[in-house]
Input
Amino acid sequence: MTPPRESEPAEAALRSAVAHSRDPAGRVDAQVTLARFWRERGDYRRAGVLLALTLHAAERIYGADCPEVAAVCNEWGVLGKYTGHFDRSQGLYLRALAICENTYGSDHDTVATLCHNLGGLAHARGTHHEGEPWAARSVSIRTRLHGPDHLLVAADRPAWAALLDGCGRPGDAETQLRAALTVFQHVHGAEHYEIAVSTHNLAAIQHRRGHHTAAINGYTRALTLKARLLGGSHPDLATTLVNLATAHRQRGDHDQAAPHYARAVAILTPHVTPDHPTLSAARRGLSLSGTEGPYA
Output
């Protein structure tokens, strides 16, 4: 992840690549890269507008069933998971998956990525039993392709773990998370986004077990690392803020909970749909009603 203070020259370079591309296919690639950059910065509105235009352009240039179109569908699907446009995301992911399976076969990294993303979307919707087979398939494909200790396998494990936990299998979830964390720390050291995600999810398991102090410590570590990597107002901080606040409230620390809920509401409101699950959880928590468990 690029630190926020470095975003302006990077964005200028990406916008220049779009503006000066003479090749239509190259322009599509440049637009996808720029949209991804905006999404990672938390600028969901501009990313969505650009991806809608880019999909139409890709279909015109490549045809409806080409891998290049699948790449745009996947990127727009990822964005929709964050903004709460879940039905549209699912349709985009499934379209991309059909294209890639037809093009590459069933055992391919791109197919694994789309299975991973379908699992992540189901997790965002709270339909854990629907998403768990997708995540398991992603890990299975990558393990066959790369071996169990590969970084790509490790990157898939936390997503599977979150769904396993949601299915009531916290022991299996913890096994997957600790295996992933070992690989991440070996490859990346201490400062990496995936380490923050795994730390958050391990804290969520402790939270579900009722170990509130352990959960608070884990969420706090994850939040600190996310803020350092992404910036203090990035929408991705909101889930950790909501869970941290909820753990404080369930331990009886209402004064410590409220600021975290309020911060999550302030971060998310400009970027997501009004009924987005994390925003709704933050608002319920702020009113001290509901949100009785972690939102992982």
Observations:
- DSSP finds 14 helices and no strands in the chain.
